[in-house]
Amino acid sequence: MEAEFQTVMTRVLIVGLTIGIIATTALVIAFRAFAPERRKGSDVKAIAWIAGTLGFVVLSCIVLLIMSIVRH
Fold first, then answer.
1. Which residue of 4, 10, 33, 47 is most buried, as measured by CB atoms within 10 A?
2. Distance between CA 30 and CA 43 in Å, rounded?
3. Distance (Å, rounded) from C-alpha 42 to C-alpha 47?
4. Which pLDDT tens digit goes with each residue over 24-59?
């Protein structure tokens, strides 16, 4: 394998794992807000967490796409 390929794959794995960990943490917080013993107003908070997580993942993908296009 070429050294550049290994460097690129390492960066992709690091960034991908970071995005995955952040998104997983945010989704766990959001789904805990849907717990039945919570009060009624927590649904808005949970939906905000889920929307924010999805926005973060989509934005991260767009940034990675832009970075890959700029390098070529």
1. 33
2. 9
3. 9
4. 888 787 777 766 665 665 567 777 877 888 888 888
CA distances from 5 to 10, 18, 22 (A): 9, 20, 26
- Look at residue 22 and tell me whether its pLDDT is greater than 80: yes
Distance between CA atoms of residues 26 and 20, nearest Å = 10
Query: What are the Cα distances from residue 38, in Å, to 1, 3, 43, 44, 66?
Result: 53, 52, 9, 12, 41
DSSP 72: -
Q: Please, what's the b/e burial string for 31-69 (b: 16 or more CB within 10 A of its CB; e: otherwise)?
A: eebeeeeeeeeeeeebeebbeebeeebeebeeeeeeeee
